[in-house]
Q: What sequence folds into this?
């Protein structure tokens, strides 16, 4: 039997031996940690000349040794300052200076730091290193550091010529871009270039023992520009992998620059292997950029995207993106082949408020085909995107005219419904408004204000052109025959007077006029058994109506002081009532003289004679004046109840018992039946848990009856008041409310403190003088590592500091404080309304509707995090959809597992990758994407 896997094993073994041979003996010896060149016990007795000689012996090969410049320090172009916190020893005869304890040397823009330094004053050569203090002293190491301009390096030893700015460095650490560059041996040239031997590049900030790095055999670093290296190979957990490249290039630019965008790779079940989001980035100028990317799948699907951001300070900013996707699924031979074409356009534009105080322009466009969200992999595990049924877009502007009541605004509005594949477009949508003015007010008032000076009027006008149709037919519609258009004018006139100083009288008059370009003619269609539009007449049509009203309102206060035997906790209760009465009049615009309604008489197929009113303007944008004369009296009552609670002998607190309780109804004097309107009621209660409960509903004052037609029960309203027939004041029609709450760690702590009587002032006490529990480790406990203490490090500490707080914080006794953070969010919607009619009691049954969505997150440790979101359907009594995510912070790596356990999108995705965006292709990904059927419902 032939062993097919044997040649593959031989190839892997040869590759491993080859890359192991590439690792130098010194690199293998030093991979476990850095050498310690200087110990505290030898500081006082060290011979500086011997140290310098030993350093010279440990340099690069002879051809690359550091050239000692014999230029005297008297030739320096600027003063050279040096200092030390401990002591400075000057040996004039030997031209030699030794410095102990956080020594510093400053010359022009060059600065050297070290815990021990010595300097040859005749040549300008400086040696800097650190002192390895014993653990018992608990002193932090101060590593050697050199700063020239914006460049900064840390190392264990630095031998530097301050005149030529050349140096030899061992165990250097420097941050370049998002990553860190370390090397055992480094030579710095006068141009600032670093030549590395046995270097490493990683984005892990644990420099002594990085979790992963790219080993650099030989490399050249141009700080803040780039790194160019010879052969490189990957090392993970100190294990070299047989994965290498003949050369490598890492850009470190901190400015915007044009360049290629490397694609990401992966596998999708129905579209095959892919390369996604690869392309080119154009840094056009400081105000504009452009990114062009594309996706390519092995089974024929592809996509292109374009994205641009723009910004001009104090003027405007925004972004524009466009995407085009071609999705191919199935197999032509198997008969399940399908092809879908989708696109999306997004535009966001904001105008700076300082640009123009009178003119504004903004845009918020999110336009896409109905299937785009389901063919785009970016939204697969986002329920908000997958379940999005309604999308809206708007482009708007406004113009205010200074020293004028007039203003102008306009917009283009688009609304999409993905489930029905419907689209609604309004273009244009113009509004002309005039703010309230007092036309009869005198410019120079003399004496008291006249009654007619209180008369005010305003104007509002709208011009609209709108259509609602299938998204595939939007470009095929005729703008005259299919689009609906019109203009609406509204002129309210009102005034306000005080009667007896306590009653406010407000008369008002409203005039509305509509302009339409078409009208309909209706007729009865026996085949459809309904009235249909048979003809459309185009031309200018004017439709107007008006109404008048008079209202009286006042405010009444009532106070009640509790009786003494009820205690003195409640000092006073105040009840505020705002009764209002209004008289409204509107003529009957259904009369033939107005021409807004037509009466049709026809006989149905079953022989019934039907009389029906239709309007030639019933499909217009701004509607048509209503039928029936109205002369109603409106009654309303608003209530508020508050209490004044005694806190102590001098302070009182106001508490709301009933935030608001409103009742309203009306009686139509001009109607011949059903004169009473529904009784509307609303209540608002402010609860102690910072939650306001709001309920509103309506009560029907009339009774119901029914008759049977074709075996069906048809309910109808009867002109009989319920209160006069012993059935209460009114039949409750329904209401709705919502409730949301978040449970977390503090929820139960607050309840425990509430019942135990503990307050905030007690917190922080009883720690036996240890203060905050987040203190350091107790005496005698060894720190994980004693990193550097360079006070001038911009990053807040030495790059050699390797203290790892991955486990979390420790308390004053040295125990780990394992705080488990969690939260659980509930959102519950409840509504009750009329259901089916019950003929046995001649009433409608109540129908309850529930909607529950919940989400949560749980962090058992500092680095683990679980979160989920789901919805529960009470009618089906099951969870309809759920998505879960698990993340693990692996220091410089991250692990993410996303899965949908139930529903039509059941799938999973597992990814472990490097956090850095520069090395985003260093990842492992495995997924099982869902399968979409062509007839599958997505909502």
A:
């Amino acid at each position: 039997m032939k062993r097919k896997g044997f040649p593959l094993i031989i190839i892997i073994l040869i590759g491993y031996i080859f890359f192991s041979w590439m690792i130098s003996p010194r690199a293998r010896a030093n991979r476990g940690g850095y050498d310690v060149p200087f110990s505290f016990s030898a500081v006082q007795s060290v011979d500086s000349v011997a140290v310098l000689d030993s350093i010279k012996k440990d340099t690069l090969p002879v051809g690359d040794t550091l050239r000692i410049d014999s230029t005297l320090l008297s030739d320096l172009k600027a003063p050279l300052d040096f200092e030390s916190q401990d002591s400075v020893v000057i040996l004039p005869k030997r031209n030699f200076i030794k410095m102990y304890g956080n020594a510093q040397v400053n010359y022009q823009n060059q600065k050297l730091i070290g815990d021990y330094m010595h300097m040859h004053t005749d040549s300008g050569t400086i040696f800097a290193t650190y002192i390895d203090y014993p653990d018992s002293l608990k002193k932090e190491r101060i590593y050697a550091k050199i700063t020239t301009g914006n460049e900064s390096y840390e190392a264990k030893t630095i031998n530097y010529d301050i005149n030529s700015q050349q140096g030899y460095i061992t165990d250097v650490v420097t941050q370049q871009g998002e990553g860190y560059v370390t090397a055992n041996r480094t030579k710095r040239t006068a141009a600032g270039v670093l030549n590395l031997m046995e270097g490493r590049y990683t984005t892990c900030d644990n420099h002594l023992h990085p979790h992963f790095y790219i080993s650099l055999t030989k490399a050249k670093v141009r700080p803040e520009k780039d790194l160019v290296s010879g052969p490189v190979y990957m090392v993970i957990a100190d294990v070299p992998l047989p994965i290498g490249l003949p050369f490598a290039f890492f850009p470190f630019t901190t400015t915007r620059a044009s360049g290629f965008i490397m694609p990401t790779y992966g596998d999708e079940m129905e579209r095959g292997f892919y390369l996604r989001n690869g392309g080119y980035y154009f840094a056009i100028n400081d105000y504009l950029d452009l990114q062009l990317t594309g996706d390519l799948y092995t089974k024929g699907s592809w996509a292109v995207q374009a994205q641009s951001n723009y910004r001009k300070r104090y003027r405007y900013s925004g972004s524009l993106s466009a995407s085009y996707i071609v999705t191919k699924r199935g197999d032509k031979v198997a008969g399940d082949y399908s092809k879908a074409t989708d696109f999306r356009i997004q535009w966001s534009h904001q105008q700076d408020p300082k640009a123009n105080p009178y003119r504004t322009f903004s845009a918020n466009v999110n336009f896409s085909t109905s299937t785009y969200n389901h063919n785009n992999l970016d939204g697969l595990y986002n329920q908000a995107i997958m379940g999005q049924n309604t999308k809206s877009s708007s482009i708007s502007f406004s113009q205010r005219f200074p020293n004028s009541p007039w203003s102008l605004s306009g917009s283009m509005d688009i609304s999409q419904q993905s489930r029905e594949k419907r689209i609604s477009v309004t273009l244009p949508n113009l509004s002309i408004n005039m703010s309230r003015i007092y036309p009869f007010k005198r410019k120079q008032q003399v004496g008291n204000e006249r009654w007619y000076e209180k008369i005010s009027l305003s104007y509002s006008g709208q011009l609209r052109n709108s259509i609602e149709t299938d998204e595939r037919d939007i470009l095929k519609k005729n703008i005259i025959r299919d689009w609906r258009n019109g203009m609406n004018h509204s002129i309210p006139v009102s005034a306000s007077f005080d009667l007896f100083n306590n009653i406010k009288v407000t008369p008002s008059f409203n005039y509305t006029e509509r302009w339409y370009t078409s009208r309909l003619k209706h007729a009865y269609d026996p085949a459809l058994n309904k009235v249909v539009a048979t003809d459309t007449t185009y031309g200018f049509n004017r439709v107007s109506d008006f109404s008048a009203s008079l209202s009286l309102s006042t405010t009444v206060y009532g106070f009640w002081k509790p009786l003494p035997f009820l205690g003195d906790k409640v000092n006073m209760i105040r009840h505020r009532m705002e009764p209002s009465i209004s008289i409204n009049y509107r003529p009957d615009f259904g009369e033939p003289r107005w021409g807004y309604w037509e009466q049709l008489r026809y006989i149905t197929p079953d022989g019934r004679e039907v009389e029906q009113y239709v309007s030639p303007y019933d499909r217009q944008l701004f509607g048509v004046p209503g039928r029936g004369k109205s002369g109603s009296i409106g009654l309303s009552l608003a209530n508020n109840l508050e209490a004044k609670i005694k806190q102590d002998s001098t302070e009182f607190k106001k508490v709301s018992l009933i935030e608001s309780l409103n009742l309203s109804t009306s009686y139509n004097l001009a109607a011949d039946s059903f004169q009473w309107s529904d009784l509307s009621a609303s209540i608002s209660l402010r609860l102690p848990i910072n939650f306001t409960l709001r309920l509103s509903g309506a009560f029907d004052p009339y009774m119901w009856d029914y008759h049977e037609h074709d075996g069906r029960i048809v309910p109808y309203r009867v002109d009989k008041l319920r209160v006069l027939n012993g059935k209460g004041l009114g039949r409750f029609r329904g209401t709705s409310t919502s409730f949301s709450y978040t449970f977390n760690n503090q929820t139960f702590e607050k309840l425990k403190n509430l019942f135990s009587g503990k307050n905030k002032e007690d917190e922080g006490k009883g720690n036996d003088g240890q203060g905050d529990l987040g203190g350091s480790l107790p005496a005698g406990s060894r720190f994980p590592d004693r990193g550097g203490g360079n006070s001038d490090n911009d990053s807040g500490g030495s790059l050699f500091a390797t203290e790892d707080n991955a486990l979390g914080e420790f308390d004053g006794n040295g125990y780990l404080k394992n705080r488990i953070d969690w939260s659980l969010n509930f959102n519950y919607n409840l509504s009750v309304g009329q259901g089916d009619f019950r003929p046995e009691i001649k009433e409608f049954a109540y129908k309850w509707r529930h909607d529950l969505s919940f989400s949560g997150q749980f962090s058992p440790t500092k680095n683990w995090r679980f979160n989920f979101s789901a919805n529960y359907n009470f009618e089906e009594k099951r969870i309809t959809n759920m998505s879960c995510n698990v993340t693990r912070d692996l220091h410089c790596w991250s692990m993410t597992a996303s899965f949908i356990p139930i529903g039509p999108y059941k799938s999973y995705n597992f990814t472990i990758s490097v956090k850095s965006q520069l090395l985003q292709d260093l990842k492992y990904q495995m997924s099982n994407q869902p399968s979409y059927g062509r007839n599958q419902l997505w909502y």
User: Anything to note?
Assistant: Helices lie at 6-22, 25-30, 48-57, 372-375, 383-386, 745-756.
